[in-house]
Structures are given as C-alpha cells and as structure tokens.
C-alpha cells in the first residue's frame, strides 16, 4: 500500500510512466518534465525508498529504472490501467523522443571519432557478420534468462543477444562508450536493457546471477585477462556458460600503439587452462581465419565457450577444436 501511495502523486506517476520506456538519468527527467533537478531528485528518492525504482551510479551520473519485485508488479498493474493517450503522457513521450535524439547525435559524434581506428582493425579479420553467426551458433536457440555482456562497448553483443534474453545487462568502464551503447540500443527499440559502469576485474554483481556471460573482444585490452575470466565465471549460475570472443595469437605489434592492445591474442590451450582454473568445463574452441589474400598481417578471430562445472554436461575437459 505504501508503494502505491508513493506512486499516486502526479509527477511521480509521470516518472514511472517514463521509466517504463527504459533507463533515464536525472538530467533526462529534468529536461522531459520541465522541473528543477532538486525537485526531480526528491521525487526519485521517494520512489527508490518505496522500492519502485532502482538507482545506480555511473561516475558522477545517476541512472534510474523500474525496480523488480512485488512492489514493481503492483506498479505495473497501475501503469497498464492508465490511459497512455492522456495529453500529459503523450507530451512526455514526445520530449523523451527528443532527449533520445540528442543523446543519439552526441553518441554518433563520439563514435565517428573512433570509427577510423575500428575500421582499420575490422579490415584485418573475418567479417563481423561471420563472427556474429558463429556466436549465435555457439549460444544455440534456447532462450536466455539472464544475460551479461562484460565490456559491452557500443552494445553490439547486446543488440545481437538481448532479444533472446529475459534480462540483459551490459557493463563497461567507459561512460562515453555506455552513452554510445544507450543510443544504439534505443535505435533498436531495446529500451529495457540495463547498462552499468564498472571494472571487469571486480564486476558489481552478486555471484551466481547469470546463465550466460559474454566477453567479446575485451581480453586483449586487459592487464590481467586470467583474472577477468575468473571473475566472469563467478557470476554464472550452476551450469551457466561463459562465451569469450577474441583473437588468436598474432604478431601485429602496431596494435599496441594504434589500438591500445595489451595482449596479442590468446592460444587455445591458454584459454582452456584459464577456463579450468575458473571452474569451467570447456565445450567449444573455434577459430575463424581471415579471408584468403590481403597480406600476412591478418587476424584470426577465436571463440571459446565454457560451462560452469557445478552442472556441466561435458564429455571431457578438452576443447572441441574447430576451424571455420
């Protein structure tokens, strides 16, 4: 009952309607509702304390979304009963679209500055379409309950896999990259994906909460990739799976300077050892060589899939090695 009382005030009800469309910051809500930051913050504080809204920090920013649980189910019933054609709600949605448009423009400007470097890297390996097809084949057709993308970057893996998941979360250390991800996910209509800022070596999630964790083109940037694999494995439910996509060993030293790569790829046996130490039964180790021709300085993309041993159904501890 206290939760419904908290939701009954007009501005707080408008906030809940907006948050039903996806995660928003205090600044977003201030722009949309035309109210002062202190006033919006007070309303959000009431909603958070009532258990209706969840809050998380991203550096100096704070983001809010509808909370999960019994209280949120009551609010969802309330929201379903509202007349979404009400002029107030319609105007709020129009302003929300404008805010997302400005966010998208800023994200695209940031991405445009980085695009030449990424285009250079992509030219060295098999097409992204082929990589994504291999990822979908490895994940399989079964629905995903809880998905986590570690080092989500622009949200590419979330755009690929979130439609298969009941809940999808992305983590990245960069606020700028998360801004790009928010804009790209919004363009795909994936407004309910959760994005968090944090360290891959110490993910801000309780252990055992995800049945699929993805690390796509992340490990080669890290000082301690083995620890990152171990921390990712701790987040899996019994029998959950970790999918790693990165490069096979190579000798393109210039990537350390031009792309900030710390490691020049990973061998199949090295990843198998890290999986074993993290309590994972390796299931797939697949290489995707670059197209023929184009010179010697080319990259092979590798894909590894491991399952938490607490409920693993594996026929052995050796990787099944495939070369596409």
Indicate the topology.
Layout: H1 2-8, H2 10-19, E1 24-25, H3 26-33, H4 37-49, E2 53-58, E3 61-66, H5 70-81, H6 87-122, H7 128-139, E4 144-150, H8 156-161, E5 165-172, H9 175-187, E6 194-197, E7 210-216, H10 225-234, E8 236-247, H11 254-258, H12 268-277, E9 280-288, E10 301-308, E11 321-323
Parallel strand pairs: 4-5, 4-7, 5-6, 7-8, 9-11
Antiparallel strand pairs: 1-3, 2-3, 8-10, 9-10
Helix pairs in contact: 3-6, 6-9, 10-12
Organism: Enterovirga rhinocerotis
InterPro entries: ArsR-like_HTH, HTH_ArsR_DNA-bd_dom, Methyltransf_11, SAM-dependent_MTases_sf, WH-like_DNA-bd_sf, WH_DNA-bd_sf
Protein name: ArsR family transcriptional regulator
Q: What multimeric state do the chains show? A: single chain
- Main-sheet strand order equals 6-5-4-7-8-10-9-11
Helix content: 40-55%
* Number of helices, counting only DSSP H or I runs of 4 residues or more: 12
| Poorly predicted runs | 312-318
CATH class category name of the largest domain:
Alpha Beta
Rg calculated over all Cα atoms: 22 Å
Major sheet summary line:
8 strands, mixed
Order of helices and strands: HHEHHEEHHHEHEHEEHEHHEEE
Per DSSP, what share of the residues sits in E-state strands of 2 or more residues? 15-25%
Mean pLDDT: 84
CATH architecture of the largest domain: 3-Layer(aba) Sandwich
CATH topology name of the largest domain, in short, is Rossmann fold
């Amino acid at each position: 009952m206290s939760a419904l009382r908290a939701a009954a005030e007009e501005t707080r009800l408008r906030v809940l309607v907006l948050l039903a469309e996806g995660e928003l910051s205090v600044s977003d809500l201030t722009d949309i509702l035309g109210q002062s930051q202190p006033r919006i913050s007070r309303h959000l504080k009431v909603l958070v304390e009532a258990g209706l809204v969840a809050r998380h920090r991203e550096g100096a920013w704070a983001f809010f979304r509808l909370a999960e649980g019994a209280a949120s189910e009551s609010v969802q019933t309330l929201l379903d009963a509202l007349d979404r054609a009400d002029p107030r709600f319609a105007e709020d949605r129009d302003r929300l679209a404008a805010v997302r448009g400005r966010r998208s423009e800023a994200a695209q400007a940031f991405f445009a500055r980085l695009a030449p470097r990424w285009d250079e890297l992509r030219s060295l390996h098999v097409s992204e379409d082929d990589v994504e097809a291999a990822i979908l084949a490895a994940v399989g057709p079964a629905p995903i309950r809880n998905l986590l993308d570690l080092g989500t970057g622009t949200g590419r893996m979330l755009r690929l896999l979130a439609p298969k998941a009941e809940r999808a979360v992305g983590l990245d250390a960069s606020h700028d990259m998360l801004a790009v991800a928010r804009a790209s996910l919004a363009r795909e209509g994936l407004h309910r994906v959760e994005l968090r800022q944090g360290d891959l070596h110490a993910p801000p999630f309780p252990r055992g909460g995800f049945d699929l964790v993805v690390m796509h083109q992340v490990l080669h940037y890290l000082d301690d990739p083995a620890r990152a694999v171990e921390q990712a494995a701790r987040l899996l439910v019994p029998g959950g799976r970790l999918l790693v996509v990165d490069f096979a060993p190579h000798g393109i030293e210039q990537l350390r300077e031009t792309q900030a790569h710390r490691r020049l790829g990973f061998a199949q046996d090295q990843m198998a050892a890290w999986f074993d130490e993290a309590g994972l039964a390796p299931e797939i180790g697949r290489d995707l060589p670059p197209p023929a021709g184009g010179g010697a300085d080319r990259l092979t993309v590798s894909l590894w899939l491991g399952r938490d041993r607490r409920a693993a159904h594996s026929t052995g501890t050796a990787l099944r090695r495939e070369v596409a």
